[in-house]
Task: structure prediction
Amino acid sequence: MMGYYTDLILILDSTVRLAIPLILACLAGLYSERAGIVDIGLEGKLLGSAFGAAATAAVTGSAWLGLLAGVGVALGMSAIHGIASINLKGNQTISGVALNFLAAGLTTFLGQSWFHRGGFTPQLSGDQRFGPITLPFAPELANVPVIGGLYSELISGHNILAYAAFIAVPVTAWVLFSTRFGLRLRAVGENPKALDTAGISVTRLRYQALIITAVLVGVGGTYLSIAQSAGFNNNMSAGRGYIALAALIFAKWKPWPALATCLLFGFLDALQFRLQGVQFPYIGEVPVQAIQVLPYLLTIILLAGFIGRAVAPKASGIPYTKER
Amino acid sequence: MATLTPNPEQRLATAAALPAAIELDGINKHFGPVHANRDIHLTVQRGTVHGIVGENGAGKSTLMSILYGFYTADSGTIRVGGKTVTITDSRHALALGIGMVHQHFMLVDNFTVIENIVLGAEDSALLGRTLSKARAQLKQLATDYGLEVDPDALIEDLSVGQQQRVEILKALYRGADILILDEPTGVLTPAEADHLFRILRKLRDEGKTIILITHKLREIMAITDQVSVMRQGAMVKTLTTSETSPGELAELMVGRRVLLRVEKGPANPGKVMLGVDKLVVTDDMGVPRVKSVSFEVRAGEIVGIAGVAGNGQSELLEAISGMRDQSSGQVIVNGQPVSAFGDDGAARLREVGLAHVPEDRLRMGLVTNFFEWENAILGYQNDYGQGLALDVGRAKAEARERIAQYDIRPANTDLKSANFSGGNQQKIVLAREMERNPDVLIVGQPTRGVDIGAIEFIHNQIIKMRDAGKAILLVSVELDEIRALSDRILVLFDGEIVGEADPATADEGELGLLMAGVHDRPDAQGSARLPEHVTPVEKTLTEMSPKTDQDIR
Result:
């Protein structure tokens, strides 16, 4: 009995770890899509900021400078996206896809030419990474039945970026529904003309949203390379940006459901790791690839049929042009 | 509310003592070649309801958009409360106390009423205080003016009438003193319109100034103190409502313009080519616009449908040409009943020999981003080439022929259609439809936004088609055009044919009255009855806007 419980705690623990970048990317996407900008470039921004963070941490030895660089990279990419889709009124999907290609190519190229390790950054350790934080009393409570394991394994022992991700959820909910900025943000994604006739700049609001998006996704990318892992490797975002977008649709662009959805995707991912090599009754061992496909398969099934009507912000993806 | 409501004369007398709420002096506005407002002078007295009437495209909405800061006038001065101002944007207009209720509401559908009302007028970064203040103020406005709306209801759950109330509340919440309403009853049911007018009266009695843009004369008679008539971008006259009549207004609206000269021999009607039998058509909102209309068009005659815009002409045209499903009734082409249902209705009608020059060339007649030659074969592209391939060479060669034949300028098949002038664009559409040699030709607003030279050419072309033995149905809001071209005139009002006239003998005043719906209806004459009908959502503003490449994304 105790064995199963420990198993469960461990799976949940890795669920949380795997969900963090999704949560950050998903919230990032929430801000931009709520403002009416489709950001398919989340994937590229995750990758770009992961590289920026790892490379900076490797060179300077500081995880915090790494974080700064990670967010900086995401901000730069958001600026490109913003100029293309807000000022030049270009196609947002194309701009996003271009950013994804740019990130995939540039990270490998720069990684190779700077560090000569086949695109990988050097292994990071100590202050170059965000280490786990042990919450008060965690070691003392570790041996208390049931809650001990829950507290010391699941709740305690994550790094600061992980806690930040969880704090970002209620903060986002509050910003969105209780502040003037949130009200305007939601309006600009639904009917920018209503804002324009009220005399508020659509362009400015959309840029503000993109900045928040960049900060969140930048933290997410940083988490990937210098908190969860000990360095950058090629294409390490592995589609998380896309899954975050899927989760956003699944959550109907709302912060709390976004958290739940990302945890669900994280759980599927954790389960997938856990099930590798396990002997199933009647079937025997299932090939690794078949198990690895599970989270993606479920994504498709859930998105195709189980979420009901997901209505995107009405003006999402449409550049705003004043009628004059 | 005061128990003693002053009568209109007293109201006007008191108002005259104060500086006028709004004075416009010599306002001019061009959109490209279109002179949308020409030298407008207008004085709106404080505390009155001032109506602005005119046909679609007369420039009413443009004028009000200038006042609201949406457009800037090319020349002229605006005085608000006696002070000269330059209104640069809507925020500025709001600050001057000018609020506008747009024809198409500027609301966020999935927001609550109160969220929409405070949007853009929040007091602080946090919403809590603003919302509770707005809630209290809404309660006050509701009791003061009868503007009851549940503040926590979602906009998408509200009726159109309630949404309009939210728009009015939005303006009042921002402290509007002068309220502009653009075709406010266009989307309302009669009961809702009734309620709106009660609200407007109360607002006026509390000292607000209201400008009401409409083309419905009965509303003008029912609620306004003064009325200004616009025609073709110019301000024709300002009258005191109690001293005028719908007949006079109709005449001013339609105008006695110089008859266009069209050389035309007598008609030689042959057999019936187009029959319309008890046709009923509803609009997108399910409201009947064409109510059991029957008529026939014979080979070699032009039947003109006259009427003030918005009385079912568009829906009639769209149903006959297969662009809109009819609710009941029949369209018969060349003796054959044709079903126009479904997305391929228009294609089927074309096959049986009906060609259609749509009312709005930019929306329905052309893809403005296409080259001239592409538009020249649009809808008939399957006739060029075999299988998947398109015979571009032949298409271009024919396009060049048409260009020569119809004198389309510039004579360049590889120019984007957006770069042609309105008249030449219209010629591209006409050439395409006429050169198919159809049995029946349906033409909507053939010369809207077309220069004089092209008008003459287009008119002659239509006559030529008639003389070639084609049946032609012509719909136009230009009475002159109808009179000049038609062999028979049918007058459409409120979705029904209310009269038929012979253009040679018809009296213009009489036609004007028919078009205004003041025929055999004693109740309509100057009474305070509200209209029993609703007119479709017009797109005047859009029509008057400059058509640039940006619009055609």
Chain A is about 70% helix and 0% strand.
